[in-house]
Structures are given as structure tokens and as C-alpha cells.
């Protein structure tokens, strides 16, 4: 289940990153309405799939089950932080400099590992917020 959600997240992220102008030059066509629609679907589906992925992680993985309201608050917080960090990470990699020249293809491996680290921090932060809200409300 998590593999399917990860694949959908990656696919929607790629769909939102597609530039209609680049594809129209590549295919030599001026009709980019379908590409704009695909890009808009990717921009909408990425946060939704990310929300579903976080919710399923917080609902299925813990050893004790929490109520839905604390989970939803933690999921929303984690989703917003991951989405914002994704935009900031794109800016960071765009202005990276000459690391690709020095490290070659290992640059991708280092950046992917760093991105996974950032996402894991936000996932754990959202889970911690959910548990803290659950404890504050006095629910067992």
C-alpha cells in the first residue's frame, strides 16, 4: 500500500513539474491545453496523495490507535510542512552550484538522501503532534 502511494506521489509530482512550453517545443505542436490540464491535475493531486499517505502512516503504523481528530491535525501539519519544504528544496537544488560537476551522478544520490531525511523529520513531527494532542485531551 505504501509503495503504491509513494509511486502516486512521485507521479503527481512529476506531472506538476512538466512544463507545457518545453513539451510543445519537443513535440513541435502549439496545442498545450492537455498539458496545462495535466499540470493542474498534478498540482492538485500531489498534496492530496501526500495527505492520504501521511494519514495511512499515522493510522496503520503505530502500535496504539489514536482518535481521528489528533491524527488529522498531525497529518495536516506534516502535509503543509512537507509541501513547503518541497518548494524550498527545489529552490535550493536550483541554486546548488557546481556540485554536479564535482560529484557527478552522486549528486542525485546525496540530494535524494537529504530530501528523504527532511521528509522523515516532518513525518515524525506530525506524529509527535498527534500524540501530544491525544495526551493533552486526556484520551486513552
In short:
This protein is mainly α.
How many separate structural domains?
2
Along the chain, the helix and strand elements come as HHHHHH
Low-confidence residue ranges: none
- Shape field: globular
Please, what is the average pLDDT? Answer: 77
- Largest beta sheet, briefly? none
Radius of gyration: 18 Å
End-to-end Cα distance: 28 Å
Count of distinct strands: 0
Structural class: mainly alpha
Number of helical stretches of at least 4 residues: 6
Helix content: over 70%
Query: Strand portion, in percent?
Result: under 5%
Q: Would you give an account of this structure?
A:
It is built from 6 helices and no strands. The chain has helices at residues 2-17, 20-27, 33-60, 68-94, 99-103, 106-136. The radius of gyration is 18 Å and the shape is globular. 14% of the residues are buried.
Topology:
Layout: H1 2-17, H2 20-27, H3 33-60, H4 68-94, H5 99-103, H6 106-136
Descriptive key words:
2 domains; mainly alpha; 0% strand; 140 residues; 6 helices
Amino acid at each position: 500500500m505504501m509503495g503504491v502511494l509513494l509511486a502516486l506521489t512521485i507521479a503527481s509530482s512529476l506531472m506538476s513539474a512538466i512544463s507545457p512550453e518545453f513539451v510543445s517545443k519537443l513535440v513541435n505542436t502549439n496545442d498545450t491545453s492537455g498539458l496545462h490540464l495535466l499540470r493542474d491535475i498534478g498540482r492538485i493531486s500531489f498534496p492530496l496523495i501526500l495527505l492520504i499517505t501521511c494519514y495511512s502512516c499515522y493510522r496503520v503504523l503505530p502500535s496504539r490507535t489514536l482518535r481521528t481528530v489528533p491524527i488529522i491535525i498531525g497529518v495536516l501539519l506534516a502535509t503543509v510542512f512537507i509541501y513547503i519544504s518541497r518548494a524550498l528544496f527545489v529552490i535550493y537544488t536550483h541554486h546548488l552550484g557546481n556540485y554536479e560537476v564535482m560529484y557527478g551522478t552522486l549528486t542525485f544520490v546525496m540530494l535524494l538522501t537529504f530530501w528523504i531525511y527532511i521528509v522523515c523529520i516532518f513525518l515524525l513531527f506530525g506524529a509527535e503532534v498527534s500524540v501530544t494532542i491525544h495526551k493533552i485531551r486526556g484520551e486513552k
